[in-house]
Input
Amino acid sequence: MVFITAEIGINHNGSIKIAKQLIDIAVEAGCDAVKFQARTVEKIYSKKMLDLKRESPWGTTTREQKHGLEFSEKDYKIIDKYCKNKKIDWFLSCWDIDSQIRMRKFKTKYNKIASAMLTHTKLLHKIAEEKKHTFISTGMSTMKDITKAVKIFRSYKCPFELMHSHSAYPMELNEANVRVIQTLQKKFKCNVGYSGHETGSYLIPIIATTLGASSIERHITLSRAMYGSDQSASLEKTGLIRMVRDIRLVESILGNGKKKIWDSELPAQKKLREIFV
Output
């Protein structure tokens, strides 16, 4: 069964209220998990970048904007409790070692490596040593980059699956190259999913499912018109509900590949072949 993750990421805009609303949407749609992003802002971005002028709901600098989009540990305690009450798993992609260590206290089932962090070797080692099932996105990465990451996870005997991805927000549909899912499956002999950043449409996750994707991740939002760099490449409630519905339908249509005679065929078999008896 395809594992479906609703990527909240930073689309909560620093609001627990919005985060809860997005969790509710994921639960209603039938997703398996929701995912967030965590960063230690001063570790990820240079002082020069953080000092840049940038208008946002939190102030006039990039520093204020980045901090405004981050949840505190207190916030994540609320998220943890809320998800447990809603009976949905949650996990994070941490963008630095400090965040990864800090979030361990929540004992989530899964880890996620963002495409941006695929070549952050020290972080990969730190995540792999936890031996949690890890989703590894592969946007803006070469086969050499992916091979190095896979070797690290296999050296720790940490369960993982790769995720075909494209790191433009939003991605142009003609750059999806979804057949890479099968290329990665053959090359690394592992499960491969799809993490999408396309605008609006959920066609590509459906195609990915037909190509054998083991997991699907899509950003979600209350409205694509909201403030934020990821909002336009996200699905709103109706789109998410339809995507999950259609993925489950496609799984059912694909079946298990074993040839059989269905009970519904028996009357036709009896009628149309009785002449040969």
Remarks:
- The chain has a mean pLDDT of 95.
- The CA atoms of residues 76 and 250 lie 35 Å apart.
- The longest helix spans residues 237-254.
